[in-house]
Amino acid sequence: MTRALAVLAVALSACSGEPRARTDAGREPPPAPAPGEHAPPAPGEPAPPAQPPEPDDRAGLLGTELAPARVRSLLASSPVKGLRPVGTRDVVIDMRLDGPVDARFVPATERDPDAWRREIAAYRVARCLGMDNVPPAVRRELSRDELLARLDPDFADVREDLISAIRWDGDAAVGAAIYLPRDARPSGLTRGRRLARRFEDLSLGVDVDPDRRALLADLAHAVLFDYLVAHRGRFDGGAVPGVPSGARIYALGHADAFAWPLPAAEHAELRDHLVRVEKLAPWFAQGLSRCDLEGAGVSAFLDEARLESLRDRRMALVTYVLALTAEHGERAVLSLP
């Protein structure tokens, strides 16, 4: 795939770890907005809407028969029955909700006030592409009294640490409530020979077991998605969750996405994973080409510097897929479900 790689090298030159002169040179990203506020628009840019538009719901949602809009509504409003911290480095709290869904809560913290925004932005990008395996993420507030009242007694010794780590907006912790699929199990698709074999299956000319086609599609699209949102480490040894049958995987955890500026070493790592993917689904290619990031409401959660980098990586991916199909044909490249 010499031609595809040559085209890709040109396309990715705009996405290297060095900030680009026309948007990034000589300045830092715009200051982070206060919790509960939208990211500020760049000079000359229109302000984002007070309420971001609803995500694209043409695709269903893996792991539940509930409509995506219904899941988002439940995440935003269901009463909290219990809270259990699960994060080690960051503040991450499992939320047991009253109803058919549970959530993981990522609040604004003193260490990282915008992690919750990146979770929501990543979900909105995924829906714009047509992905059904990135769980919904919505803005939610948790009051200090509710946190203390619903905190699992087993974690009473970390209560003060939680209180001090969270960046409070008055008496509220503002964050992202992320759908936590109840059927999620470790997929076994992590670093090692099994993952290497699945990557080999994504090479052109390799016959694919029909029973693995959906899993391979999820793997291919997760790699492309991770490049798009600048998310590293999904397959670096941690537990990649999947459905009990092992036929599909979920793409969870995007608090570290949208790095800006993206260091050259991290960009190279994402690119090295990307070029191993030579097969994908037609719907993903169409979603990548047609995705309207502004219409998806992503600008309400990312500053302009990160949005510009996201646009660049999207164009690089479009160029990569076009180069693959031009060299090998759509039938060979767009061969996954």
Describe the structure concisely for a colleague:
This protein is of the alpha+beta class.
Task: Note the topology.
Layout: H1 2-12, H2 68-77, E1 80-85, E2 93-97, E3 103-107, H3 115-129, E4 137-143, H4 144-150, H5 159-165, E5 168-169, E6 172-179, E7 185-186, H6 193-201, H7 213-229, E8 241-242, H8 264-274, H9 282-290, H10 304-328, H11 330-333
Antiparallel strand pairs: 1-2, 2-3, 3-6, 4-6, 5-6, 7-8
Helix pairs in contact: 1-10, 7-8, 7-10
Average pLDDT: 87
SS-based class: alpha+beta
Number of helices: 11
Unreliable stretches (pLDDT < 50, length at least 5) are 18-49
**Quantity of strands, as a count:** 8
The span between the termini is 23 Å
Radius of gyration: 20 Å
Q: What overall geometry do the principal axes of the alpha carbons give? A: globular
What percent of residues are in strands? Answer: 5-15%
Assembly state: single chain
Largest sheet: 6 strands, antiparallel
Q: Can you walk through the features of this model?
A:
It contains 11 helices and 8 strands. The chain is an alpha+beta fold and 337 residues long. A hairpin with a 7-residue loop joins strand 1 (80-85) and strand 2 (93-97). Helix 1 packs antiparallel against helix 10 (304-328).
